[in-house]
Write a structure and sequence with these properties.
heterodimer, A: alpha+beta, 60s Ribosomal Protein L30, Chain: A, 2 domains, 14 strands, 30% helix, 24% strand, B: 363 residues, Rossmann fold, 5-stranded parallel beta sheet, 11 strands, PurM-like_N_sf (chain A), PurM-like_C_sf (chain A)
């Protein structure tokens, strides 16, 4: 029963989102094949390479443990630029405000956008504000677009994975998604799960300076989580990836909450995490470099690119079993019993 | 979670697997063990347990996913209710994506119908209190684990005098269909991994008639990988010894008497009745229907609505899959026409469904 209308699953970042992009949106607006879809477009002008990206933020609740929709909107776009290896410079901000939004909430959100921009070293240079009648939006939606420059001349892209590459993550996964879910559903998880929202451009800059062309792929595993992002990379690069479950960093509180709700942390959203695929000889240096940085303290090598090229992702489980990892299908829903 | 880590220890798992391989090394036949709990189905796939077993042991999935065994006309009924402007459907998340004959609750929600995902029947009660002008219909699906909480919510609603809280009932009980499947000569079930949480309610004795009549080994097993490896080992031992019995591997949770309080609440509100299982048909006495004195809470009786004639996809093998007779890959629709994004049958929809597990984790 293929859906003839937009359903929530189309926004999950998983397979349905991909289908919507590939079948409906991309053919009409761009024609870019999946292999070349990355977090930011790379443009060349006057001999200089620029990165350009845009993203919209519709998170509910707008304030959550560890952040709010404002710093999320800045960090998210900064990270999209950083994942292409660019140095973020300028942002634009589009605000869609619902009638009835308290001005004090707007001020709080704008203040955190200002702080996040300052922390990320980017300047907000353009903007737009619209107000819609009550019920036509959910409190506040924010769109940000960003421009960055490249300080190097090599490519970092989703199709860049090579056989033998090691897969690194800069810390525990699933914190953002669980913090937002707990806030939205009013779940009392008796724990302090905070969003990991953070700008990652500095960490990326250090990786580029430290291992240079040994850095092949960078992606931030936001919606759809680590599983969906790695599956995208496997398909884009036409390689197989194998993850080691025992190496995956997951905070205990997140693991516990996921166990209770029947969710898999591999599919839970992150906002301050990156996945880096690096040449095997550069892996230990990359790991040490990450672990020295404030946003990479919990970094780990979680898997590698194997020598098959079928676009599949596998997980070696803690008990030694092997299973497949697919993209998120629809939304992650709490189980029934 | 450190407690849970003890049940996922790789070194202990390797020893258990070695022990199991050694135990059945000289066994020339095939042991077919069925799990009848959706959470087991998922855990088996999620931890890659099949890839660790000796070739003499085959795991098949039975009708253990409450969403999967709910017939299509129930979904149609829920969809019809959702279309009524005065109704809000409150449901566990899995149900909203299950396709009915021509729609699903998710689609109705996208078109503006009142459909809310809740985490417990008590959340549905809270909705009823918050929206006195609406009729809140909770979708009562699930087995003995879920049914007592629904019964409890009904008792609370009665105490609070709530007149806008209803349940569209489809609760089911597990041991009777297990006996039906054990008697199926095509299946040749050698043993059951009995459900963990259901057994915590009904207690090990609930399987005694099944063992006595069908001579089939039963081991109540937990959900962690070491639990399941141990449960499989206990079943294999029973088969080799030729002495079927009920054993409890999951003794840290399941008490010999079960949970009498939960059963009392359940029996106060519900009475056994005949009920249809998707793919299996009507199994006498395996459903839970409202007792007459709680008829005021029965959405089917209290909210009249026209329900479309049910239509199932002719190629869908959910029924055979739920009976453990075929594997998902044997279904011509699997991975081609039927996918999690565009599911044909409930086995692909539910997070506990056999096809969903195979699609998501299968190698």
């Amino acid at each position: 029963m293929k859906s003839d209308i937009i359903i929530l699953g189309h926004g999950s970042g998983g397979k349905l989102s991909h289908q919507l992009l590939d079948d409906v949106i991309i053919p009409r607006l761009s024609g870019l094949p999946q292999r070349d879809q990355n977090d930011a477009a790379v443009l060349t002008h006057g001999g200089r390479r620029l990165a350009f990206t845009t993203d919209s933020y519709v998170v509910d609740p707008i304030f959550f443990p560890g952040g709010d929709i404002g710093d999320l909107a800045v960090n998210g776009t900064v990270n999209d630029l950083a994942m292409s290896g660019a140095r973020p410079l300028y942002l634009s901000v589009g605000l869609i405000l619902e009638e009835g939004l308290p001005i004090v909430d707007l001020e709080r959100i704008l203040d955190s956008m200002k702080s996040a921009a300052a922390a990320a070293g980017v300047t907000i240079v353009a903007g737009d504000t619209k107000v819609v009648p009550r019920g036509k939006a959910d409190k506040i939606f924010i769109n940000t677009a960003g421009i960055g420059v490249f300080d190097h001349d090599f490519d970092i892209r989703g199709s860049g994975a090579r056989i033998g590459d090691k897969i690194l993550v800069n810390g525990a996964i699933g914190d953002h998604g669980m913090a937002v879910l707990a806030g939205r559903e009013g779940l009392d998880l008796h724990s302090e799960i905070k969003s990991d929202t953070a700008p990652l451009h500095e960490l990326v800059a250090e990786l580029i300076a430290g291992i240079g062309t040994g850095l092949h792929v960078l992606r931030d595993p936001t919606r759809g989580g680590v599983a969906t992002t790695l599956k995208e990379i496997a398909l884009q690069s036409n390689v197989d990836l194998t993850l080691d479950e025992t190496a995956l960093p997951v905070n205990e509180a997140v693991r516990g909450a996921c166990a209770i709700l029947g969710l898999d942390p591999l599919y839970v959203a992150n906002e301050g995490k990156l996945l880096a695929l690096v040449a095997p000889e550069a892996a230990e240096d990359a790991l040490a470099l990450m672990q020295r940085h404030p946003t990479g303290k919990g970094a780990a090598i979680i898997g590698e690119v194997s020598d098959a090229s079928t676009g599949r992702v596998y997980l070696r489980t803690a008990i030694g079993g092997l299973r497949a990892v697919e993209m998120l299908a629809g939304e992650q829903l709490p189980r029934i019993c | 979670m450190k407690y849970l880590d003890a049940f996922r220890d790789g070194a202990v798992a390797r020893k258990l697997v070695e022990k199991l391989h050694a135990r059945v090394a000289d066994y020339a036949g095939q042991m077919t063990f069925m799990e009848v709990c959706g959470t087991h189905t998922m855990a088996i796939s999620q931890h890659g347990i099949r890839s660790l077993l000796p070739e003499q042991i085959r795991l098949i999935s039975g009708p253990g996913c409450p969403v999967c065994v709910t017939p299509v006309d129930y979904v149609d009924h829920a969809v019809a209710l959702a279309r009524l402007p005065e109704v809000i459907i409150a449901t566990f998340g899995d149900m909203i994506r299950v396709p009915g004959s021509s729609s699903s609750l998710q689609r109705e929600q996208a078109r503006g119908a009142g459909v809310r995902i809740v985490y417990s029947p008590l959340d549905a009660l809270a909705l009823a209190q918050k929206h006195p002008d609406k009729k809140i219909v909770f979708l009562g699906v699930g087995f003995e684990t879920t049914a007592p909480t629904i019964a409890g919510a009904v008792l609370t609603a009665q105490r609070q005098g709530l007149s806008n809280f209803f349940v569209l009932g489809a609760n089911k009980t597990i041991p009777i269909p297990m006996a039906v499947l054990a008697s199926d000569p095509e299946l040749q079930v050698s043993g059951y991994l009995c459900p963990a949480h259901v057994s915590a309610i009904i207690g090990p004795q609930a399987y005694a008639p099944l063992v006595a009549q069908q001579k089939v080994p039963c081991v109540i097993t937990g959900f962690e990988p070491l639990d399941m490896l141990q449960g499989i080992d206990m079943l294999a031992t029973q088969v080799l010894e030729g002495q079927p019995r009920v054993e409890t591997q999951y003794s840290r949770i399941v008490r010999p008497e079960g949970n009498p309080q939960a059963r009392a609440v359940l029996e106060q509100v519900f009475i056994p009745c005949d009920t249809p299982w998707r793919g299996i048909g009507v199994i006498p006495g395996s459903g839970l229907c409202f007792r007459e004195e709680f008829a005021a809470f029965d959405a089917a009786r209290q909210i009249p609505v026209d329900v479309e004639t049910p239509r199932e996809h002719p190629g869908c093998l959910c029924g055979e899959i739920l009976k453990g007779k075929v594997r998902p890959a044997d279904c011509p629709l699997f991975r081609t026409i039927c996918t999690p994004e565009d599911p044909v049958g409930a086995c692909m929809v539910s997070s506990e469904g056999t096809c969903a597990a195979e699609y998501k984790y299968g190698i």
